[in-house]
Each structure stands twice: as structure tokens, then as C-alpha cells.
């Protein structure tokens, strides 16, 4: 099931995020803060009571940015991130959002493959963005 997260789920989201070192590193407080921002949305994928994955974004006007995505290591390669991404993109298109961007580390092939498969293209590179020698790729997609 795909739902919007609430601030009460910040702890569960932080626990999931802590299992995935390539995610953005948000802690419980960070999720709480994000979930009170007017333009922020965190979509969650759930199975029974468990949050198996999430996708955080902000959208303002006709532009959106994906800020953080993670799937529990117990549930990867089951199409959860693709389902979350497709759901979020469809919702954004309904809201007349025209362009979506994100930043991903160049040494994160699974995430780059996920976004490429969804139609994102590399728009630019931020040298040493994550650490010396770890560049960031800016990727974007028109809706
Ligand atoms: C990247 C991540 C979100 C993918 O989640 P997932 O639910 O396993 O992905 P899906 O099963 O939906 O896979 C969709 C596509 O992504 C790509 N992909 C996902 N995992 C991959 C892997 N380990 N290696 C290569 N490609 C991968 C594939 O193209 C895949 O399509 P396919 O299964 O038809 O080949 C997950 O591995 C994760 O949480 N990583 C750590 C956090 C992270 O990197 N977040 C992104 C920050 S920008």
C-alpha cells in the first residue's frame, strides 16, 4: 500500500533510513521537521504494519525535487522503489508539476539505474559534492 507519511511515523522512517547508508542520512528529528513543511511529501510503501520504503520530495509550483529515497534491505529488488517513484510522479503530474530533479551520488549505480529506468537524464555534475572524489549527479525528468 502507498500512503503519505505522518509526523508520528518519523521514528520508523529514521530506523529504515539507518539501514541504508546511501540514503540521505536523515534522523528522526529531520523526518519530523520535513513532515511539517508545507511543500513536503513523504510517500511510504507499507506491508502489513511495516514501512518497507519511502520517497521524500518537495514540490512548489511546476517544479519538484526528490530529496530522499530508501527501501529496507530486506525488501530490495522487489519493485518497491519503482512503485513509489511511479506513484509520486503520477501525483506530481496531476498537480501540473512540469519538471522533477534530484541529486544522486555517482557511486550509487542502483539508484542511478532506478532513475534512468524511470526516464530521468543526467543534467549536470557537482564535483566532490558528497566527499572528495565523490561527485553528485543532477538528474531531471520532464513530466
Ligand atoms: C536504490 C534503492 C532505493 C532501490 O530500491 P528497490 O526497491 O530495490 O528498487 P526496485 O526493486 O524498485 O528496482 C527498480 C530498478 O532500480 C534498479 N536497481 C535497483 N536495485 C539495483 C541494484 N542493486 N543494482 C542495479 N540496479 C538496481 C534496476 O534498474 C531496477 O529495475 P529491474 O529490477 O527491472 O532491474 C535501494 O537500493 C536503496 O534503498 N538504496 C539505498 C538508498 C539510496 O541509494 N537511495 C537513493 C539516494 S539518491
Explain briefly what this protein structure is:
This protein has 143 residues and is an alpha+beta fold.
Describe the secondary-structure layout.
Elements: E1 2-4, H1 10-17, H2 28-34, E2 40-47, E3 50-60, E4 63-71, H3 80-94, E5 99-105, H4 109-117, E6 121-131, E7 134-142
Parallel strand pairs: 4-5
Antiparallel strand pairs: 1-2, 2-3, 3-4, 5-7, 6-7
Helix pairs in contact: 1-2
Descriptive report:
This protein has 143 residues and is of the alpha+beta class. The chain has one domain (2-142): Aminopeptidase. The protein is 27% helix and 41% strand. The chain is built from four helices and seven strands. It has helices at residues 10-17, 28-34, 80-94, 109-117, and strands spanning 2-4, 40-47, 50-60, 63-71, 99-105, 121-131, 134-142. The protein has a seven-stranded mixed sheet, with helices on both faces. Helix 1 crosses helix 2. The relative contact order is 0.15. Residues 20, 22-23, 53, 69-71, 76-82, 104, 108-111, 113-114, 117 line the site of coenzyme A (COA). Coenzyme A (COA) binds at residues 20, 22-23, 53, 69-71, 76-82, 104, 108-111, 113-114, 117.
Amino acid at each position: 500500500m502507498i500512503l503519505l507519511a505522518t509526523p508520528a511515523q518519523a521514528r520508523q522512517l529514521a530506523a529504515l533510513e539507518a539501514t541504508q547508508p546511501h540514503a540521505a542520512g536523515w534522523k528522526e528529528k529531520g523526518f519530523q521537521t520535513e513532515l511539517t513543511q508545507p511543500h513536503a511529501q513523504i510517500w511510504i510503501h507499507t506491508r502489513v504494519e511495516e514501512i518497507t520504503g519511502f520517497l521524500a520530495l518537495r514540490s512548489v509550483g511546476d517544479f519538484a525535487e526528490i530529496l530522499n529515497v530508501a527501501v529496507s534491505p530486506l525488501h530490495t529488488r522487489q519493485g518497491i522503489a519503482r512503485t513509489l517513484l511511479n506513484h509520486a510522479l503520477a501525483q506530481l503530474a496531476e498537480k501540473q508539476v512540469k519538471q522533477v530533479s534530484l541529486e544522486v551520488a555517482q557511486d550509487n549505480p542502483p539508484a542511478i539505474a532506478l532513475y534512468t529506468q524511470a526516464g530521468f537524464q543526467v543534467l549536470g555534475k557537482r564535483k566532490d559534492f558528497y566527499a572528495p572524489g565523490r561527485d553528485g549527479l543532477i538528474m531531471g525528468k520532464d513530466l
